[in-house]
Amino acid sequence: MAEDATPVAADRVYGAIYDAIVDHRLAPGARLREEELAQAFAVSRTLVRQALHQLAQDGVVVLRPHRGAQVPEPTREEGAHVFDARRVIECEVVRRLAGQLGAQQREELQRIVAAEARAIAAGDQREAIRLSGVFHLELARLAGNPLFVRMLEELLPTTSLLIAQYKAAGEPMCVAHGHQALLDVLGQGSSARCATEMRRHLSEIERSLDRPPGRAATPLRDVFGGYRERR
Question: Which CATH superfamily is domain 76-207 in?
Answer without folding.
Answer: GntR ligand-binding domain-like (1.20.120.530)
